[in-house]
Write a structure and sequence with these properties.
By secondary structure, the protein is mainly α. The protein contains 16 helices and no strands.
Length: 420
């Protein structure tokens, strides 16, 4: 797990170094902001369309081999991009093709690497592993963003892509030496997670993942609250940027300070989330509601100093909520279904990721930055509160015992399974 965390730190730093200069590169090559947006959409598109297929591949293929090959493939794309930039051979068509290829590979890489990290620790430590991954991601983001500017100035734009390619190569080189934990042999493994069926590894039908997801109310509820939070909140790079430079009349440097506060809060939240033992959808909803209240307060904030004080706990509860939700998502399904469930989630998250910024941008155009933050917070808080209230009523409702003929003994196990 230490080697995996180190590899992820290097990889995340390289990825954020590349992302920091990628949009500038697209603008430099095309001279069009619209084309920059199109390149991002092309890269995200495969996650929306092929998420189910990518998740099925992860369930059907050996986990370590799949993750190593996908990391190597992403590294190859980064090296090709670096070469094209260095020799001034990059054009619009090539940019879009490379973006699409990256998106396709990521549909397999994202669930494979996520589940591989969980396979390195006992089941009881999975929440801590996910929290550690979140903290590593945040630190890598800060390091990569900070290194990007100096790398481009000293070595040129192509160097950022070379660094990212090397980071993927490092991860691919580490994976073969990782020792996996046999979760099926654990005595404390949840009873709801049976051992993988051999046939499922041979033929993983993507439709099974969709049916399983739709048939699990807690996963549907998790998707609902997370989707609302993604659309009406969390777009802080957009909403807080407009709030800081608009109503609060501060400059771009002030938004940089707000962004740093968000990053610090995210790291602290990830460390706190490492103490979670049994995360639940109720915890996700409670954290989403708390974050929504803080978002409303941020929207009404009269000064930059108060806003900075508010965004730190905002990022903290968001990080705890993310860790809890990811843990539920990756541990609720049986092992042989987890890749496909993550594939469904990738399609959903890509969808609301594409919907959120335009929707909140339109709301800010119509009502202003402050109102957009307040309205969005009210929507999230209302949904979270309603969900928690409904769950509380179901939990306190007395069980109804039918006064009918006894249930045949042969039917009882199926009923008990359905109730569970």
């Amino acid at each position: 797990m230490r080697w995996w965390s180190l590899a992820n730190l290097v990889s995340n730093a390289g990825t954020w170094m590349q992302l920091t200069v990628q949009n500038l590169l697209v603008l430099q090559v095309t001279g069009s902001a619209a084309m920059t947006g199109l390149s991002l959409a092309v890269q995200a598109g495969p996650g929306l369309l092929l998420g189910l297929v990518g998740g099925a591949a992860v369930d059907a293929w050996p986990r370590k081999l799949t993750a190593a090959l996908s990391q190597a493939a992403l590294g190859l794309v980064a090296f090709v991009t670096a070469a094209l930039v260095a020799f001034d051979m990059l054009n619009v068509t090539t940019l879009l093709v490379l973006a699409a290829v990256t998106g396709v590979i990521a549909t397999v890489d994202a669930p494979a690497t996520a589940l591989l990290g969980n396979d390195l620790v006992p089941t009881r430590d999975v929440p801590s592993a996910i929290a550690l991954g979140s903290a590593v991601h945040s630190v890598g983001r800060l390091a990569g963003t900070a290194l990007a500017g100096g790398t481009v100035v000293l070595f040129g734009t192509a160097a950022a892509f070379v660094a990212n390619g090397l980071s993927f190569a490092f991860v691919a080189a580490v994976i073969p030496f990782l020792r996996l934990v046999d979760h099926t042999a654990e005595t404390d493994a949840p009873a709801a997670a049976p051992a993988p069926r051999p046939a499922a590894r041979v033929s993983a039908d993507p439709r099974e993942g969709l049916r399983f997801f739709a048939g699990r109310p807690r996963l549907v509820a998790l998707a609902a609250i997370t989707g609302l939070s993604a659309i009406f909140g969390r777009n802080y790079t957009l909403t807080l940027a407009v709030l800081v430079t608009g109503p609060l009349a501060a400059g771009a440097g002030a938004f940089g300070t707000v962004s740093t506060a968000l990053a610090i809060g995210g790291i602290v939240g990830a460390l706190l989330a490492g103490m979670l033992q049994r995360p639940s959808v109720r915890l996700v909803a409670a954290m989403a509601g708390a974050g929504a209240v803080l978002q409303i307060a941020a929207g009404l904030s009269p000064s930059l100093a108060l806003l900075i004080l508010l965004v730190i706990p905002m990022a903290m509860v968001e990080s705890v909520s993310d860790t809890a939700g990811t843990t539920v998502l990756q541990t609720d399904p049986p092992p042989h279904m987890r890749g496909r469930v993550l594939g469904v989630w990738r399609s959903l998250s890509t969808g609301w990721g594409l919907i959120g910024p335009p929707a909140i941008g339109l709301l800010m155009e119509l009502a202003g930055a402050r109102a957009a933050l307040v309205i969005g917070g009210l929507v999230i808080a209302g949904a979270a509160g309603a969900g928690l209230l409904a769950h509380g009523r179901r939990a306190t409702r007395p069980a109804e015992v039918p006064a009918l003929a006894p249930v045949p003994a042969a039917a009882r196990p199926a009923e008990l399974s359905a109730v569970a």
